């Protein structure tokens, strides 16, 4: 997928000006939060489960090589194939080769973020194979030729009128003047369109929420049932999964599943949680005859043993972006790649380079809500801070910011000078703003006052007030 | 080549080579023991409580449940349910001996075929392997007698389930599968596909508003056979014993490999 992260600032400015996007973001505000809140309140053990989830993932990552090899052996035992792919290129090649060998003309797909990362659709299309997205949100994005803006609600940024417009433009064999009375009419039209696609597809491609080493299973979690139709009806099933999806046992997976749906959609459990293990058995009446797992690295193994290893615990629930004040106003597209919000701000620089994605870890107020809701307790603000430090060390930060940071650091390391300077500034500002309450404009501070007023300082610096109170508090 | 590159990079990151055999043996022992983690207290109920919790959760997720006293009552339950929803008296049935053994003759108007699901099916009757009270979830492992397509293609999915097959937590359902199934291909217990189904299909992709019947069934109806005397509704009224059940399995510390003796 094309990376537009270097243009984050422009992307964000455009997003703030887009009435359609702002309408969609406003509508969504609160929904995810209250649903998650209710689901978490309904399970008193949730906090303990977060520790368990973190520990399961940490245990797996410490033995990642071992569990991947065990997993591979089990898949092979169930008649499946594991294709290890070090790079995105390797993965695209492997998928295309399987599709070609199957003589595929149409390929149905369940929603998969790794597929977006790899750009599988473009690659198949370029080679004459028609990919069909079957998740409702992904389907309309394919019609509109847009990337997803949210990892579990890909069409998060669209409004009902966008759906109607796209369906009229794309389903041209239906009467032009048909009326969509309700949202369910839109759903029904998509359902009947996609039914036919499911039935003729030669290959089905899904992602995986987990891989289970104990049994060699791939696990998908959906509400629509499209992923299940995708992996059940065609003769060939391809699973796209990155290496950090593996967990040791069904019990480990089950504990993580208790966290996933509650953190994501606020459901106690998603409608379909399905474990796929190898090929159709003798006597089975349905299911694929070929089962392939594309095991994708694409930069992840480099994170093992670094500051960013914690990020490999991520189970892609989207709670961090749902609770992020920055995501809440700029939406997902501004982040410029597959993964938006706080988890994207950590992952994108890792996978595409901090030189391209350096703006993302800066687009945070460090309010810490993301970490406080993360089901596997990833210290997201700390990891974003690591990126800021590296960006600074590698001289990627713009020179004006570097100069100001340097000046501030010089003062900060000389406390008496620092206090003298702040005392002087407080005094001057207090004098200038006497009787005003706040400044609407201020020389050299246009960046601040363009969006809000600056309150006039009152009653001396923090340190001065602190000292006074300490004295007063002493008996 | 990719395989070596990936495993090599992981090992370099972990600052070690391949795990020594004794450590591998320890981790394999943990997988073989598959220790449980925390089981939420909500499902630690007596039998009647678990069945009631299952029903409550199915209904919370927009499914429906009808309790029947014996197998002979199943045809009437199916027939009445289809009629109540203005559906033709026709359905695709799982070719399961238990369903095929039912005497369907007292509802001669009901037509059914024992087969996998087809795109044109309006209704299906699946055989439930087990169910989990914790979230009202059905466990439907594929087999010749339990095709996956019956869970997905029909507009209205009915599932026959014995009350004695309702357990509290997912872990207990996994243990039923482990104990009862031998896979012809792997010799393990996992079939090709295990679906955990909680309510009918839905989507919230259009303006984050929930609509039922996305790609899978619009309706999910459980026909629950009351074959467990301890779980009858009368028993709830008679003995509301909600004491938590003692843990029957070793509970490992999170993330720690259980010792092989556990």
Automatic annotation (TrEMBL), chain A:
Domain 4Fe-4S ferredoxin-type, residue spans: 305-335
- The identity of this protein, by name, is LutB/LldF family L-lactate oxidation iron-sulfur protein
Q: Name one Pfam family in it.
A: Fer4_8
Q: Which PROSITE patterns match?
A: 4FE4S_FER_1, 4FE4S_FER_2
- UniProt KW Cytoplasm keyword: no
Lineage, top-rank taxon, reads Bacteria
- State whether keyword RNA-binding applies: no
Alphabetic keyword roster = 4Fe-4S, Electron transport, Iron, Iron-sulfur, Metal-binding, Repeat, Transport
Species source reads Sabulicella glaciei
TrEMBL record, chain B:
Q: Where is this region: Disordered?
A: 239-262
Concerning Pfam families, the annotation shows: LUD_dom (PF02589)
Please list the residue ranges annotated as the LUD domain.
Answer: 96-225
Bias (Basic and acidic residues) ranges: 242-251
Name-wise, this protein is: Lactate utilization protein
Top-level division of the source organism's lineage: Bacteria
């Amino acid at each position: 997928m094309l990376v537009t992260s270097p243009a984050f600032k422009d992307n964000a400015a455009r997003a703030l000006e887009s009435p359609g996007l702002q309408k969609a973001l406003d509508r969504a505000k609160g929904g995810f939060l209250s649903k998650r809140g209710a689901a978490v309140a309904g399970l008193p053990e949730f906090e303990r489960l977060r520790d368990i989830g973190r520990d399961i993932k940490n245990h797996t990552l410490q033995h990642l090589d071992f569990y991947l090899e065990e997993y591979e052996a089990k898949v092979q035992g169930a008649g499946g194939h594991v294709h290890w792919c070090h790079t995105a290129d390797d993965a695209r090649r492997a998928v295309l080769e399987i599709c070609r060998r199957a003589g595929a003309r149409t390929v149905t797909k369940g929603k998969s973020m790794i597929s977006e990362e790899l750009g599988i659709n473009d690659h198949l299309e370029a080679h004459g194979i028609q990919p069909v997205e079957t998740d409702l949100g992904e389907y309309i994005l394919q019609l509109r030729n847009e990337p997803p803006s949210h990892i579990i609600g890909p069409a998060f940024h669209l409004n009902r009128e966008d759906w109607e417009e796209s369906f009229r433009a794309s389903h041209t064999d239906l009467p032009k003047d048909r009326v969509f009375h309700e949202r369910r009419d839109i759903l029904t039209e998509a359902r009947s369109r996609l039914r036919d696609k499911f039935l003729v597809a030669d290959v089905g491609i899904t992602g995986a929420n987990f891989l289970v080493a104990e049994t060699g299973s791939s696990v998908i979690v959906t509400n629509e049932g499209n992923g299940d139709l995708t992996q059940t009806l065609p003769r060939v099933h391809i699973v796209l999964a990155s290496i950090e999806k593996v967990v040791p046992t069904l019990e480990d997976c089950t504990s993580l599943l208790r966290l996933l749906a509650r953190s994501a959609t606020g459901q106690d459990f998603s409608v379909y949680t399905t474990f796929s293990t190898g090929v159709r058995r003798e006597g089975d009446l349905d299911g694929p005859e070929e089962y392939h797992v594309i095991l994708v690295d694409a930069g992840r193994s480099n994170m093992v043993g670094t500051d960013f290893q914690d990020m490999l615990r991520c189970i892609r629930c989207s709670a961090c972006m749902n609770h992020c004040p920055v995501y809440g106003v700029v939406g997902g597209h501004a982040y410029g790649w597959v993964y938006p919000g706080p988890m994207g701000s950590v992952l994108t620089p890792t996978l595409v380079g901090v030189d391209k994605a350096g703006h993302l870890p800066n687009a945070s107020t460090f309010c810490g809500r993301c970490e406080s809701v993360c089901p596997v307790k990833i210290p997201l603000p700390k990891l974003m801070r690591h990126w800021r430090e590296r960006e600074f060390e590698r001289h990627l930060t713009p020179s004006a910011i570097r100069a100001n940071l340097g000046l501030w650091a010089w003062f900060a390391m000389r406390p008496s000078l620092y206090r003298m300077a702040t005392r002087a500034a407080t005094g001057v500002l207090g004098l200038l703003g006497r009787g005003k309450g706040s400044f609407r404009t201020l020389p050299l501070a246009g960046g601040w006052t363009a969006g809000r007023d600056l309150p006039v300082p009152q009653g001396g610096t923090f340190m001065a007030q602190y000292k006074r109170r300490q004295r007063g508090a002493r008996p | 080549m990719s395989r070596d590159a990936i495993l090599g990079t992981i090992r370099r990151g972990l600052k070690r080579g391949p795990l020594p055999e004794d450590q591998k043996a320890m981790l394999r022992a943990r997988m073989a023991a598959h220790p449980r983690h925390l089981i939420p207290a909500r499902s630690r109920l007596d039998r009647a409580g678990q069945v009631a919790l299952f029903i409550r959760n199915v209904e919370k997720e927009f499914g429906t449940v009808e309790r029947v006293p014996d197998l002979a009552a199943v045809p009437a339950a199916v027939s009445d349910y289809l009629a109540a929803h203005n559906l033709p008296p026709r359905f695709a049935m799982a070719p399961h001996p238990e369903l095929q053994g039912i005497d369907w003759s007292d509802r001669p108007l009901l037509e059914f075929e024992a087969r996998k699901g087809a795109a044109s099916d309006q209704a299906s009757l699946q055989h439930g392997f087990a169910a989990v009270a914790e979230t009202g979830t059905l466990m439907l492992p594929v087999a010749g007698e339990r095709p996956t397509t019956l869970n997905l293609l029909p507009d209205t999915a009915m599932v026959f389930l014995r009350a004695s097959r309702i357990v509290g937590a997912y872990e207990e359902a996994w243990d039923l599968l482990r104990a009862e199934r031998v896979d012809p291909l792997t010799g393990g217990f996992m079939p090709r596909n295990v679906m955990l189904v909680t309510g009918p299909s839905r989507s919230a992709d259009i303006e984050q508003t929930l609509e039922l019947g996305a790609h899978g069934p619009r309706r999910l109806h459980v026909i629950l056979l009351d074959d467990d005397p301890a779980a009858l509704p009368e028993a709830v009224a008679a003995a509301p014993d909600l004491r938590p059940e003692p843990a029957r399995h070793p509970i490992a510390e999170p993330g720690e490999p259980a010792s092989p003796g556990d």
